[in-house]
Amino acid sequence: MTSLKYPGLEHQPDSGKKQSLWVQQIRRVLRTQFGQPTGLLGKAAGVIMARRQSNIERIHWTLSLLKVQPHDRVLEVGTGPGVAIEMLSKIATEGFVAGIDHSDEMVKQAIKRNAETLQAGRVFLCRAPASAPPAFDAPFDKILTINSIHFWNDPVECLRNLRKLLRQGGVMAVTLQARTRSTTDETTAILGKEIAAKLKEAGFSHCDLRIKKATPTAMACVLATN
Questions:
Q1: Helix, strand and coil percent figures for the chain, each rounded to 5
Q2: In the chain, N or C terminus with fewer CB closer than 10 Å?
Q3: What secondary structure does DSSP assign to 17-79, as a single string?
Q4: CA-based angle 191:200:67, to the nearest 5?
């Protein structure tokens, strides 16, 4: 049975909040499908991810903080339906954009959304977990992951593996916006500090925590330099 706890977080956004058994069951289903979408529910989860305004705002904010340039090589970990990949391909027009996700359904949706740039060789997508990313022929200038790290079983080890794919001086952005009703701005700050600590433990330096007021909850993004 899927745990109600996010494996990648020490501080749980909804810790201490009592919930009925049916609410707990609904949460298990949602966490399963948004953590690793499968089947018909997974297809629906992908559609929601692609259309939900808060998701779009997280992506725009993260990309603005990363300051992606036309010649950058960029990797997204946890692509979901490929919305950020599509945006990145319109910015890094002379570079290269890659994305990995551990869900077959999400990779299929991302491939469909980015078919033209995939065919042109400007985008690469494949199924792979954050814990075992594929090898690439050159390091990346930027790496990002948005609302994904809390699903990783060993986030520090995943971050270490991803850091190996980043050039010296390259930047990684880790963004998280907790979706629970009990999340407060204080919760977001605590989660941001936890992410920064994990990045430092993984070997990153100059970890810069940014907080942005948003709906339904604030967003945290940590920019870490390799």
A1: 40, 20, 35
A2: N
A3: ----HHHHHHHHHHHHHHHS--HHHHHHHHHHHHH-HHHHHHHHHHHHHHT--TT-EEEEES-
A4: 80
Compute CA distances 35 → 18, 28, 115, 146, 207, whole Å: 22, 10, 24, 12, 26
Calpha distance 211→185 (Å, rounded): 9
Model-level pTM?
0.84
Q: With respect to residue 14, please indicate whether it lies within any of the assigned structural domains.
A: no
> In this predicted model, what pLDDT tens digit does every residue of 6-41 receive, in sequence order?
677 777 766 545 555 644 554 544 455 444 555 555
Query: What's the rounded Cα separation, in Å, for the pair 121 and 16?
Result: 48
Mark the ranges of the chain whose per-residue pLDDT is less than 70: 1-4, 6, 13-51, 180-182
SS3 state of residue 94: coil
For the domain that residue 102 is a member of, what is the CATH number?
A: 3.40.50.150
| Total structural domains within the chain | 1
pLDDT tens string 41-72: 556 555 566 567 778 999 999 999 999 999 99
